[in-house]
Design a protein that fits this description.
The structure is a homodimer.
Chain A (H helix, E strand, L loop, with lengths): L4 H4 L3 E5 L8 H11 L5 E5 L5 E2 L2 E2 L13 E4 L6 H10 L4 E4 L10 H10 L4 E3 L6 E3 L22 E5 L2 H13 L6 E4 L8 H9 L6 E6 L5 H14 L2 E5 L4 H11 L6 H11 L2 E3 L2 H13 L7 E6 L2 H13 L3 E2 L4 H8 L12 E2 L6 H13 L5 E5 L11 H11 L4 E4 L4 H12 L4 E2 L2 H20 L3
Parallel strand pairs in A: 1-2, 1-5, 5-6, 6-7, 9-10, 9-11, 11-12, 12-13, 14-15, 14-16, 14-17, 17-18, 18-19
Antiparallel strand pairs in A: 3-4, 8-10
Helix pairs in contact in A: 3-4, 6-7, 7-9, 10-16, 11-16, 12-13, 13-14
């Protein structure tokens, strides 16, 4: 087992600073590990308690009878070096220091003490929410389930320097039925940093695309080299916060790190082949497409819709992102025209009109996906004034399996619409709430496809 | 009663082409008028039925015993001129022609016949979903309630050239608890157009901001003059679809209208004082802020957060939209510092840190809103790893009442988060899912505030 594996697949976890009080982090973390299906052993450590949540408590990590792979540490900052020393003596393999009050609060000295005490142990943190692994169910995020939904097993690996950012985005993704493989908040990253984790996720079988939120790099050159290495295998989407001077001042009080000049980072990451974005929504929008869809061979996009207005908006977005509207082969057009009503507009955008049912979409999409002039398809599904029934989901899923071309969906609306969006997401068909978002995700597929062609293997 | 009033406040409505078949438009419209609390009289017209949905049917509009203010017409296009003639004889005041198959399908002639037959009657359509009035409950949108939620009573007036676009956006808005005053889809607009409706909404008491989706103007100069007139009273947000040549070709088959050069329109609308946007989400995001929040006196924005990462992103967005980060008065800083923990970052962005409760927000926001250096505040509420309870909603509502400064919220997440977002929306505090969207809405307030200062009354 490689060292970082102990974070994601530990056989046993000690929660040091476990608490009896339901609002304390040391309680919530223990509760989540017990309730959310983590299968390994869980040991609460608290010298003042006998049992917490039905689990026997230990006064220190050294008193735990079995071996401990991972320690989750929620004691006050000043007690952390001592706890780390205990862990090192116990031969704990990895530790996540949740607690704040270190470098971000001016206490760099404490961080040095921790580093001196840790021995060979690897450390994530301090000042983090830690890890969420959707497969092993290691979950150190100290939010109760009612406040934050956890994503299902998925294909996005997500690294975030900010814990609260990570938790909010995970919660959003989970509610959209977008899965993740692993999430890691890196906080003050005195040991494990984004470079280590990029390497790890590059080799992680479940991770198909990587999303990174970063305020400043710790090791610029290593990050660049690692990105160049990783993007040969997997796409990386990168959100660098702190473009403005005003924001950079805030960063140092947040994770105690120096934020570099944003333009330099972004330029560096793009040169390395990563896809840089500027908003929280785009980070997951793009990673989601890259994790689930095949890469297009070109940049000729077909739009198929049941509402004219959205077709027009999607066309504007495709063009404004620098892609081309596909020109369908004459035979494709003839084939579709022979099977759909005369008032449908068999062109690009293709407006199948409000009375289109799933069968009409099937006829149109089957022909369009077969057309050599089409690199990828944006399907707009409007469920309001529409003859579409839920079986349109089945049709898209079987077309996704049949053709090796990207298929992204745009659908806007309320509960009925969102129910279908979630069904599609579960089947690996990324679904966006506006034409612009769908086009932006398609552009990421086009860009990464070009990057892969250019890079030597 | 002015002529357009008959569309929104009719005492009686005839549904001409009412149907017994649950999937037909003529059934759904009748059902919605009956079920969704429209208080006036409703008359189904269908020569082949005696009763539909428990209502007595009439063989033609002339057979209806009482007077008819509004006719909703869902008969085939070719029968429409005759129906319009009947309506004119019956002294019907207004008609909405839902049916398609007119100019957009190459049948301009039919439109001319309708115009000849109508007399003094005003007509919306053809090729529309018509009207939704949240106050009078006139609702001619032919989507069943299970597919499309209707917005509550609100302050946004919404004109859409595309019906499906309008339905999808209304459904989305309703699900976010964003209300509207009136919605009108104008389709082929052979009579009533966006210029008429802008004038009407400018004088509508319930409408505080106007959102317009347009593919092409019918009367460019009149639109410009009307916008100049309207923006003195109310803000107008404008989404012009069809920027690209490819999109403009699609427009003519959609609503049978010629799409003008987008740059010219956008330039014209901006010159007239409207706020132009490029995406469906932004259209309502901005109208929502403009409808509910006071205008800022300047462009100095304060960000208050309980998560550092989102504070950084919000700062980036404020600066990138050309606004300034407010510099708090020394006394404001001292006052807040005396009441919040030392590890909170009392600056801009102000990070109250994850353990901030509603009371800490109250202390900070009260001081910040009082500060003369602050024009408006973006409040970030992260509900996941957070000590925030639902009473933060109360606190924001009372601060909104106490101060005459814009207060916008950003919160990202899943169900627990969205529940609070909906509570805030209902209280007139626009709430956005990303810092960028919140900043963009704040920018609209700043822009409209400048526009109002520049315009002669």
């Amino acid at each position: 087992m490689k060292d970082l594996d102990y974070f994601f697949n530990p056989k046993s976890i000690a929660v040091i600073g476990a608490s009896r009080h339901a609002k304390k982090f040391g309680y919530i973390i223990l509760e989540n590990l017990i309730d959310n299906e983590y299968a390994g052993k869980v040991y609460p450590v608290n010298p003042k308690a006998d049992y917490i949540l039905g689990k026997k408590c230990y006064s220190s990590v050294s008193k735990i009878p079995g071996s401990v792979d991972l320690a989750v540490i929620v004691v006050p900052a000043k007690n952390t070096p001592e706890v780390i020393r205990d862990c090192a003596r116990k031969n704990v393999k990895a530790a996540i220091i949740i607690s704040g009050g270190f470098g971000e609060a001016g206490n760099k000295k404490l961080e040095e003490e921790v580093m001196e005490a840790k021995g060979k142990m690897r450390i994530i943190g301090p000042n983090v929410i830690g890890i969420y692994d959707a497969y092993s169910k290691v979950d150190t995020i100290f939010s109760p389930n009612y406040r934050q939904k956890r994503p299902e097993k998925g294909a996005i690996g997500f690294i975030s320097q900010s814990g609260a950012f990570g938790a909010a985005v995970l919660d959003w993704a989970a509610t959209q039925s977008i899965g993740v493989s692993k999430f890691i908040s890196i906080g003050n990253r005195i040991d494990v940093d984004e470079v280590d984790l990029l390497r790890y996720l590059a080799n992680d079988r479940e991770t198909k695309a990587i999303a990174v939120y970063l305020e400043g790099a710790k090791r610029g050159r290593e990050l660049y080299n690692m990105l160049r290495h990783v993007v040969r295998k997997k796409p990386v989407v990168f959100l660098k916060a702190g473009k403005s001077t005003e924001a950079r001042a805030a960063i140092s009080s947040h994770t105690g790190s120096l934020a570099g000049e944003s333009e330099i980072y972004v330029g560096m990451c793009e040169q390395a082949g990563a896809i840089c974005v500027k908003s929280s929504e785009k980070l997951i929008d793009l990673a989601n497409a890259l994790a689930h869809q095949p890469l297009p061979k070109g940049d000729c996009i077909q739009v198929v819709t049941n509402g004219g207005g959205f077709g027009v908006l999607a066309t504007d977005s495709v063009v404004s992102y620098g892609m081309k509207m596909a020109k369908l082969d004459r035979r494709t057009i003839d084939k579709i025209k022979s099977s759909v009503p005369a008032y449908a507009s068999v062109s690009n955008p293709m407006d199948l009109v409000g009375d289109a049912d799933a069968e009409r979409y099937k006829i149109a999409l089957d022909a369009v996906l077969k057309d050599r002039n089409v690199s990828g398809v944006i399907v707009i599904l409007l469920m309001q004034i529409s003859a579409l029934e839920s079986n349109v989901v089945n049709i898209l899923v079987s077309l996704k399996k049949k053709y090796d071309k990207p298929l992204l969906v745009c659908t806007t609306g309320g509960e009925f619409t969102n129910m279908h969006a979630r069904m599609l997401e579960k089947e690996g068909i990324p679904t966006y709430s506006s034409p612009k978002r769908a086009a932006s995700a398609m552009k990421a597929l086009v860009d990464y496809s070009k990057t892969k062609k250019m890079l030597p293997i």
